[in-house]
Every structure is written in C-alpha cells, then in structure tokens.
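Q: Protein A?
A:
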Amino acid sequence: MLLETPVRRLGNVDHSAVKAAVAAADAQAWLDDETRQKSFEQHRQTQSLVMLFSNTWPDPVVEQRKGWDLLARPATALMDQIIADHYPPGGRVIRAMAAKLVSGGRIPLHKDGHPSFAAAHRIHVPLVTSPDVDFVIRGVSNYLEEGVAYEVSNLDYHAVTNRGPDRIHFIFDYTLQ
C-alpha cells in the first residue's frame, strides 16, 4: 500500500513466541518453499518460512504452505493482535511468512508490483535484526527495531542491505478487499 510516510510505526508487540518458533525451524525448512526466490529476482538472497501465500487478485486464493505447521499458532495470535489494534475488522490475511535476509545479503531497489499491494497493508515485525541492516524506502534509511510492528509503504521503491548477521522479519499482508 502506498503510505504518506515510508514507514508507519504501529508499536511494540510481544513477538517472543513467533521468534521462538522461527528459531526452532531447521535449516532445511528455510529452503523448502522457494516460490518467492524463484518468482521475484529481488528476493534471490532471502529464505522464507511461508505460512500463507496468494498470487491471485482481485479474488485471492490463499494457500497454506509448509510454514503453517511451524508458525501458525504464535503467528496467528500476533497477526490477530496487530489487526485488532490498528485496522478495521472484516479483512483477511493473504500472505504471511518469516523472511530471512542472510548475512551479507541484499534486496535490490524495487517496488512491489502485484496488484494486491495497492489494497493490502504490508506489516513487518522484526524478529532478529541489527543496526547493520539498512532498509531504505524513498531514499531514506530506516532502522526497524526488533519487537516493533511497522506498516511499510511497499509501493514505494525500497531496498535492504544486510551488513550484519542474518536478519529475520515476520511479514504479513492484510486486506479489506
């Protein structure tokens, strides 16, 4: 969604259960679903635990993926709380995942192009991060703190450079359509 500001801070959240579930995932789980990496060049240097995914619009067909079994309980609770606190009820989550940008990795400058992004709120909750992660939106560097929920203006050009250890965000898309 195109926002007035590049990043909207929603506030602190209890991310500990999702962080623990992600930490318990084995290395192979991060490689089991490479849909994003193969479909979107900008995500080649990422790995994902994909819970929910839809690439159809305007009538999204949402698929449960392998990450559902790993993250559903804690992630659903986190998403429900963020939605209840910040968004109107009655919508649905059309994508949800933990996304890792490996140490030394980069997501090149791009804007999300799927038509659903004009209607969906893109929420990021950093689970593991460091000041060495540079998340640039509209040419401005943003430090997204661990345990804080943010809505990101993903229809703006954005890029990420990770000069620190692996960075992991829980990301989901919520739409009222």
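Q: Protein B?
A:
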Amino acid sequence: MPANIKAIAQRIKELRTINGLSPEALAKEFKISLETYKKYEQGDKDIPVGLLYEVAQKFNVELTTLLTGDEPHLHAYSLVKKNLGPAVDRRKEYKYKDLAYNFVNKKAEIFMVTVTPGKKSDIHYYSHPGQEFNYILEGSLQVLLEGHEITLDQGDAFYFNSGLKHAMVALHGKPARFLAIIL
C-alpha cells in the first residue's frame, strides 16, 4: 500500500486508541467486519472516503486531518491557487486534489477529481454518507449508480445521494476531470 494510506491508517489507530475504543467496537459502529476494519487500520486495504468521513465525524476531527495529518487553520476564507491544493492519491483510478483543505469547520468537502481510463474489470464501487455534486470540467464520464448508467460530458452537472453505491469511469480512452462537492 502507498505510504499515504499507511499514514492515514496510523492516524485512525491513534484516534481509536486515544479514545479508548477497541477495533471490535469501531467495526460494529461502522457496520463492517472486524477483519476488514483491521485491514484498514493496518494500512493493508484502501479506506473508502465514506468510512473516512465517518471516522472524522466520530472523533470530531477534520477530514483534512485524517488525510494529511495537518490541521486546517483558516476561518474567514480559503484560497487555493491553481495546481497548489494537496493531492490525495488514494486510489489508482481516481486522483483527488483538495480545494478547501485549510478551512476550519467546513460544511462540504471540495475536490478536483481526475478519473483515469481503465478496464471495466477495474471498477470499484464506493458509498459515503451525505450527498455529492459533480460538475464535469473536461472529458466524458460514465457514472454507475445502483443500476443506473449516466453519461456526463463537459459542462454537465450531477447531484446524487452518495450513500448509494457508485463508481465513475472515464470514457473514450481519455481522463475526465470534475469538481466534486461532498455534503
């Protein structure tokens, strides 16, 4: 696993330990098997963003803190200049750039996401609490959302219940880039 996944796993383990909770208790609370939870906490398995949200909420920390180890400090506004937001490389098929990482107590997580073309066999479904808004900046993207296949092109906007299992596939052999706002 990449070093950043190991670092995220270590931060989760530290939060759990500091709060005096067992792996069994968190696995039960997050409705996942103990085996899966242990793999997440050991950094042996990629942690879905939905679970990271739940961990952040459980321990009252910013998602940014889990992802980067740094605390956000800005209260009035946040400015992220072009190409300067921290990369959150968690999955081979998705590349995230955090566009509001340094703002305290955000109401939404905002990412620039690039989906690289892949094979249908490489599709992984994810879900996380809340709702998500995606605005396609370039390329074409197929969204697979619990039995629905929606094709999005540049300029299209898509809002959905992110608690539903979903996956995104770049079309036409080219990367697709979109703005994702997760509420």
